[in-house]
Amino acid sequence: MTTTSPTMDVLIWGLGRSGWGALLLALKKGYRVAVSEQQPLNTQTRQFLQQHDIPYEEGKHTPQWFAQAPLIVKSPGIPPHHPLFHEIPSLSQRVISDIEWGYLHTQNTIIAITGTNGKSTTTKLIAHLLQTANLPAAFSGNIGKSFCLQIIEWDAPYHVVEVSSFQLAHTQKFHPKIAIILNIAPDHLDWHKTMNHYITAKWKITQNQTPNDWLLTGSDTLTQTYLQNQTTRAQHLPIHYTFNPKTLEVSIPLPNHTTLTLTRNDWIRALTPQNVAAATLTAYLMNIPPKTIQHNLSTFQGLPHRMETIAEYQQVLFINDSKATNVHATHWALTLANPPIIWIMGGYLKGKPDWTPLIDLAKQKVKAIICIAKDWEPFYRAFHHLNIPFHTADTFTEAIHQAWQYAEPGATILFSPAAASYDRFQNYQERGEHFCQTVWNFVEHQIYQKSTA
User: Fold this and answer.
1) Exposed, middle or buried, 160 (CB in 10 Å: 0-12/13-18/19+)?
2) What is the pLDDT of residues 189-202, one digit of tens each?
3) What's the pLDDT score for residue 226?
């Protein structure tokens, strides 16, 4: 391990997923690179760094390294109020994010997506619409590969990149051809500290755009309120659409003064009308004909853990929506799922959510609620007055057996937690995988019992 300040062109601050991509891109481009990681490194990582003669430190951040580094690529998880920013006043001028680092090493077209909800699905959906229209596109960022790693493996003519406020906060030259701010709601205020800082970070997505570029923003009242005092040089296009909750049709006005109307089967895997409207408008701006967009929307497969149909048994659908970690996401799950719904929900609550958007939907569509949260009482207080059967369960096995007691042909057993996973699982992916495996085991056991009866 190197103890003195090394000679370097760039310092990688944090060696997580994005840090690895930034490191490999620096090596490919011939930079002298060093690594500073607060956590202990594993043996394989140490061996890699040693084999490539990369100076590194672990378990600490030595201020001298940061004071002498000409450029620093920072992990998104390191907050802007880290003590090093106060200890070294010039530090913020030399810190960039991994998406900025990637941008500096590609000349190709970038479509960037940010927002509080729906970023990953919209990112993959836009890439799908481009790819199926024979435009060579790759998606990266917070979904799939890191942006830097994607550039190493294939510097695609069109990069569709999901970017977070953490990454945007440390951009200087990042310049997407099309920038999308899907929505803005209070979030990540432990990292940003203030709502103004959060909004300012999001708005940096358009800071280098020109009148030849496009900025798409959510048309919902909250987003427009937050962004009303912001200015851009890009052509501004609000993401307008109309949604019929009975037929699930979505109508999207296009810039040529025509409207594209989509049926449920056209867009349902895109999860929300906002996702599909943002992707449709982006594809249209990329000169893809509306009829082609409509056809290719219907072939989109969606993402795991987002309204994912995982089984159907005796005309009962099982849907995994583990990614629904807040009220907004579960609102759409309940809107889109076919009634009667047996709703499996609950988890770790971040603050005190406003359950109002779910109340009317639950009254109309939910036959029973099964709560899997360790602390189930806040959920009980929110929904017990609806006179809908409310049960608690310690495991998914218990929850699914309880749900099955209410199932009937045409019903949906929907797992949409409206809460984070941290009370029982490391993340929503692990939670969703546990749910899926439990459902498959349950269905297999039901089939076996029936065959041996």
Assistant:
1) buried
2) 455 567 777 888 88
3) 81
Give the whole-angstrom CA distance, residue 151 versus residue 137: 12
DSSP secondary structure letters along 49-77: HHHTT--EEES---HHHHHH-S-EEE-TT
- Predicted confidence at residue 284, as pLDDT, reads 98
Which segments of 51-168 are extended strands (E)?
56-58, 72-74, 95-97, 109-114, 137-141, 158-162
Dihedral angle sign, alpha carbons of residues 389, 390, 393, 396:
positive
Q: Where are the domains of the chain?
A: 10-99, 107-297, 308-452
Residue type, 365: K
Q: Are 129 and 279 in contact (CB under 8 A)?
A: yes
What's 245's DSSP letter? T
* Architecture of the domain spanning 10-99: 3-Layer(aba) Sandwich (3.40)
Give the CATH architecture of domain 308-452.
Alpha-Beta Complex (3.90)
SS3 345: strand
**Residues 277-295: tens digit of each pLDDT:** 999 999 999 999 999 999 9
**Cα-based angle 379, 381, 383 (whole degrees, multiple of 5):** 70
The candidate with the shortest Cα–Cα distance to 141, out of 76, 206, 208, is 76
Residue (of 126, 144, 239, 111) closest to 184 by Cα position: 239
Tally Cβ neighbours within 10 Å of residue 388.
14
Nearest to 415 by CA among 330, 339, 303, 299: 330
Three-state DSSP class for 251?
A: strand
State residue 444 phi and psi, 5-degree precision. Answer: -60, -40
The rounded distance, in Å, linking the Cα atoms of 235 and 180 is 12
Q: What is the pLDDT of residue 30?
A: 97
Full-model pTM: 0.87
Write out the two tokens for 28. Answer: 């490919």
Q: What is the CATH number of domain 107-297?
A: 3.40.1190.10
Regions of the chain where pLDDT drops below 70: 1-3, 186-193
Residue type, 149: L
pLDDT of residue 266: 92
114-151 burial, b if ≥16 CB within 10 A, otherwise e? Answer: bbbbbbbbbbbbbbbbbbbbebebbbbbbbbbbbbbbb
Q: Among residues 160, 80, 79, 164, which one has the least CA distance to residue 117?
A: 164
User: What per-residue confidence (pLDDT) applies to 183?
Assistant: 86
Residue type, 29: K
